[in-house]
Specification:
278 residues; UDP N-Acetylglucosamine Acyltransferase, domain 1; 15 strands; 6-stranded mixed β-sheet
Length: 278
């Protein structure tokens, strides 16, 4: 299958092509996999719009004896209906995931099966609620998303659109962190504080940054746009735009090898630069 499937794309409604693509893919999967047909109809094909799909699916995943799925669905739907920019970001996140993850073969897949996408959409609802002064509900959603998806994103953090969180397990994003558009990060990434100080204490990640597996970016520091953070690095100081930072503690080893690292997803570091600069 192509990414996205060309035949399914042929009838896309120009007003919402991502949603039309998701529906078309669900129809094909339901026909090809009868055992999943009921699930796909209930979760996707019987819904009126993409926001309803995500709200219902998250609610089924996260609902429990404390808050039933029907209650959580209303919590998500309220946020998604009140702020159209959440839906825009949601669609950009789907496209980013399918474009950047070679394992992703359809827009439908992150919506139904990818923890990083689901954790991010739960965060987006929680972020809306905390902005409305509903801190307890926002923190409840954060807590349940952390338990279910193993990614802990504070609802007060600021995260742009077109963000790809691959695998998601172990990702932590702190309260005053800012993440720009088109950022990609892998599992076990931490955007954390550097101590117990209060106030503005978390990293500011520019547009187009790639943060590789297990990297820790700590403190109120700036990672400039289209920079690359190597796997396992501990970043404690600012990283200039279009630079590569590697090591513990991280040092600048040169410029990025591509102008769009978050889209290319190339985690390698040039050995010559690495040897000369660290």
């Amino acid at each position: 299958m192509s990414k996205p499937d060309e035949q399914a794309s042929a009838g896309i409604d120009h007003l919402d092509p991502v949603w039309s693509q998701v529906r078309a893919e669900a129809e094909k999967r339901a026909a090809a996999e009868p055992s999943l047909s009921g699930f796909l109809h209930t979760t996707v094909l019987n819904q009126a719009k993409l926001e309803d799909v995500v709200a219902g699916h998250l609610a089924e995943k996260m609902g429990n004896s404390e808050l039933a799925p029907s209650v959580l669905r209303a919590v998500f739907e309220e946020a998604y209906s009140a702020d159209a920019s959440i839906g825009t970001a949601m669609r950009a996140d789907i496209v980013a995931t399918c474009d950047r993850d070679p394992a992703c073969q359809a827009y439908l897949e992150p919506v139904l099966f990818y923890k990083g996408f689901m954790a991010l959409q739960a965060y987006r609802a929680a972020h809306w609620h905390i902005a409305q002064g509903r801190r307890s509900m926002a923190l409840y959603v954060q807590n349940r998303a952390s338990e279910v998806f193993q990614a802990d994103i504070h609802p007060a953090a600021q995260i742009g659109q077109g963000v790809f969180i691959d695998h998601a397990t172990g990702v932590v994003i702190g309260e005053t962190a800012v993440v720009g558009d088109d950022v990609s990060m892998l599992h076990s990434v931490t955007l954390g504080g550097s101590g117990k100080e209060g106030g503005d204490r978390h990293p500011k990640i520019g547009n187009g940054v790639l943060i590789s597996v297990g990297a820790k970016v700590l403190g109120n520091i700036r990672v400039g746009e289209c920079a690359k953070i190597g796997g396992g690095s501990v970043v404690l100081t600012d990283v200039p735009a279009y630079s590569t930072a590697v090591g513990v503690p991280a040092k600048i080893v040169g410029k990025v090898s591509t102008p769009t690292p978050s889209r290319q997803m190339d985690h390698s570091v040039d050995e010559k630069d690495y040897g000369e600069n660290i």
